[in-house]
Amino acid sequence: MGKSFNVNGNCIPGLHYMVDLTDRLVQIKAMVDAGQYFTINRARQYGKTTLLKELAKFLREDYIVASLDFQRMSYANFENERAFVMAFADELLDSVENMPDEIREKLDLFAEGNSGNFTLQALFRVINKWCGQAGKGVVLTIDEVDSATNNQVFLDFLAQLRGCYIGRDVKPTFQSVILSGVYDVRNIKGKLRPEEEHKTNSPWNIAADFLVDMNFSVSDITGMLAEYEEDYKTGMKIHSIAEEIYDYTSGYPFLVSRICKLIDERVTGGEGYPDRIKAWTKEGVTEAVKILLSEKNTLFESLVGKLDSSPELRKLIYGLLFNGNAIPYHSLNRTIEMAEMFGFVKNVSGNVAISNRIFETILYNLFLSEEAVSSEMYKAALQEKSQFFHDGRLNMDYVLERFVVHFNDLYGELEESFLEEAGRRYFLLYLKPIINGKGNYYIEAQTRNMERTDIIVDYLGEQFVIELKIWRGNAYNERGEAQLLDYLDHYHLKKGYMISFNFNKKKQIGMKEIVFGGKVLVEAIV
User: Domain total for the chain?
Assistant: First the structure.
């Protein structure tokens, strides 16, 4: 049986195509060698479990590694100290094979409920004794650690670990402790219920910063695709395909693997892609992205769930998408911290930005679908949808022409302050039903602000670049035209589109075509 791309659970070398984690493991081992305690907190499906499992193998020559997973422990195991000590001892015994008989016997007493003392202090006395007799440093890793953070016994457990760390110069203890999860247990407040505010002072303030980049780089993706190419000889332009996948995902591990899996298993053999040679192309990546954006998976459901449970988070994301809000990044802003923790946003040059194009489009589609029910622009486009196509190709000129008509009929008399924020949203509401099911769009991050936004539309292999901008006079408009022409060079296109939201009472509504150096610019003025 050959290898496959995996998005369910941890990746296993020999079974799955994987990026080479060696550089990351070397960085983490340096932290372990230095005796650091730290957390690996990243958003869902970020490769944390795979990294921990590969780390355990990487460390086993020099260390004894106890690999625990709190997800295997039930809620009842955290109800009180006795239950936790029993469950933890059982997990420890299951994780470590070579343990001194004396230590194993004492842990057995805890696990089987036969000890006379089920306190954390008693448990850690046995652990400290084991660390002193082990002959090698003992490294404790705990995956899904945040599944326990609603419980006081977990805070008491962290306090014991902290005590061990502080007293490690006089008493043997773990060489290193690594806690992995979505929530950072250094700031446990966000996970506790309001009535438990008095429990929010986490003792995990000893943790070192974890600065290892877990995003997949273009080089990482190239290496994984090279392994695939070795097996299937598709003739793909490996580095070019890796760059294309990275452009959509910004290296988010699940999204990278999912796109690869879709190309391999669903694009290949589909309409227009009879074999792997046709599928592993730029067009094949676009097709896989289209499938991904239309599917329901646990990662996307998790994102939506977080928006539903937090009005502040929803407001932040909506403002970033539709209003062009420039939001300075600040790690102490609770809403920004939450958005980053769940994977929605990242810090780009000191400002908050949506993490990747896939998330951005998913979020746009979510908000637009909620507004579509009552949107007159959406209904207008839906009614005329069949008119926008000729011989299967999208007639973008006519899309803009009809948008101008409907926009001015419906909203021409509204105030400028309202339209500045709403204009781009209205165009996306108009565009969505037209390309739905066969086309994709995304917003070019470098040009998204209150005055200018570039939308890239892919429809059945054909690309369109559309600039949306607020009219600021002729000089500003001419600069915008020049910028768009430069952008066309980047996409190797001869034709581009511009929608100018003009609030001058003397404006001339309609369409015009400008020719510059062999390129055509179609401008719609509303």
Answer: 4
Residues in contact with 487: Cβ distance below 8 Å, sequence separation at least 6, in sequence order: 444, 454, 465, 467, 496
Q: How many CB atoms lie within 10 A of CB 4?
A: 15
pLDDT at 37 over 60: yes
Together in a domain, 439 and 486: yes
Residue 179 structural domain: 22-199
364, with CB counted inside 10 A (0-12, 13-18, 19+), is buried
Q: How far apart are CA 184 and CA 34, in angstroms?
A: 21
- What pLDDT does 345 receive? 95
Q: How many CB atoms lie within 10 A of CB 271?
A: 7
Least confident of 213-217, 381-385, 436-440: 436-440
pLDDT at res. 469: 80
Q: What is the CATH number of the domain that holds 178?
A: 3.40.50.300
Q: List the structure tokens of 83.
A: 């239950």
Domain assignment present for residue 359? The answer is: no
Give mean pLDDT, residues 145-172: 90
pLDDT tens digits for 237-254?
A: 999 999 999 999 999 999
pLDDT tier, 194 (very low <50, low <70, confident <90, very high otherwise):
very low
Q: What is the pTM of this model?
A: 0.90
249 vs 242: CA distance, rounded Å: 10
Token duo for residue 222? 């190239």
Q: How many residues does the chain have?
A: 526
114 and 246 in a single domain? The answer is: no
Residue at 13 is within a domain? no
Sheet holding 510-516, edge to edge: 439-443, 452-459, 462-470, 495-501, 519-525, 510-516
Whether the Cβ atoms of residue 507 and residue 525 lie closer than 8 Å to each other: yes
433 pLDDT more than 80 = yes
Distance CA 270, CA 264 (A): 11
Identify the CA nearest to 463 among candidates 448, 485, 442, 437.
442
Residue 209 is assigned to a structural domain of this protein: no
**SS3 state of residue 390:** strand
> Do 276 and 233 fall within a single domain?
yes
* Alpha-helix runs per DSSP H in 250-295: 253-262, 276-279, 282-294
